[in-house]
Amino acid sequence: MEMSQRQNPPPVQVPPSSLMTNIRWGVFIIVAACVAVFVYLNWELFTTRYALVYWFGDGNAAPKLPNFIYLVLFFALGFLLKLVMGLPAKVANRRTVKELNERIEDLEKDLAELVRKNIALAEKAGEKAANPDEAADQR
Predict the structure, then answer these.
(1) What is the C-alpha to C-alpha distance for residues 100 and 97, in angstroms, rounded to an integer?
(2) What is the pLDDT of residues 106-118, one digit of tens each?
């Protein structure tokens, strides 16, 4: 057998969405483990009551809360900020998807019309081929 005639089996392909989901979960687990180790090593910092006092410019201090509350508060604010900053991109993506879907529908309609015309032309050509005398007379 020649090398060009031998066919290799097709490679096994993992769907990209499945691969990205696995990678995302792996990264999440690694980050969660790092956060857990950080919290474990600094447990006294997180459980200290009133450890931080934030002073504002007018002489007033922020409420005296445990460090853990501040950590959760800033994490939540960062998460909300990320959501708000990502909204314009999501809206633009949805608009693009809507426009592309409309374009696909228009192209499908055009394709159906062309197929219909092609079938009509094929039937007409079949009739001419069935009656060669009439086709010659028309020329």
Answers:
(1) 5
(2) 999 999 999 999 9
